[in-house]
From TrEMBL:
Stretches assigned to the Myotubularin phosphatase domain: 1-129
Domain of life: Eukaryota
SUPFAM superfamilies (UniProt xref): (Phosphotyrosine protein) phosphatases II (SSF52799)
Protein name in the entry: MTMRA protein
Database matches in InterPro entries: Myotubularin, Myotubularin-like_Pase_dom, Prot-tyrosine_phosphatase-like
Taxonomic source organism: Eudromia elegans (Elegant crested-tinamou)
Family statement: Belongs to the protein-tyrosine phosphatase family. Non-receptor class myotubularin subfamily.
Organism phylogeny: Eukaryota, Metazoa, Chordata, Craniata, Vertebrata
Length: 129
């Protein structure tokens, strides 16, 4: 995938041929990527959606099993679909533009209450929360 870095962490139990085969199943060929690790062994792994619904369960299970085997306590994988309930990149960018306009272009002579209301209307604080 052109959007992934040249090198990234994968569980050692996933063979290279599995990674190549699985990559075609993910939207944009975006393989799961290890984003963060906690000293207790917990990890945050980002994974794109799988295109083929029929293959989704098999591929998902194979990857989750590999992640579980790499955990020092063999803890089960907890999955969360972050696409649901989160703003899109376009919404975040629009909120940032509104925030910049408010902070740069708006005179601060207005009442604080109106400025705070305008800040809330950008939705920036809601998105970064």
């Amino acid at each position: 995938s052109p959007s992934l870095p040249e090198y990234f962490v994968v569980p050692s139990s996933l063979a290279d041929q599995d990674l190549k085969l699985f990559s075609y199943s993910f939207i944009g060929r975006r393989m799961p990527s290890w984003s963060w690790n906690h000293p207790n062994g917990s990890a945050l792994v980002r994974m794109a959606n799988i295109k083929d619904v029929l293959q989704q369960r098999r591929i998902d299970q194979r990857i989750c099993n590999a992640i579980t085997r790499s955990h020092p306590h063999r803890s089960d994988v907890y999955k969360s679909d972050l696409d649901k309930g989160l703003p899109s990149i376009q919404e975040i960018q629009a909120a940032h533009v509104k925030l910049k306009q408010l902070c740069v272009n708006e005179p601060f002579e207005e009442t604080e209450e109106k400025w705070l209301s305008s800040l809330e209307n950008t939705r920036w604080l809601e998105y970064i929360r």
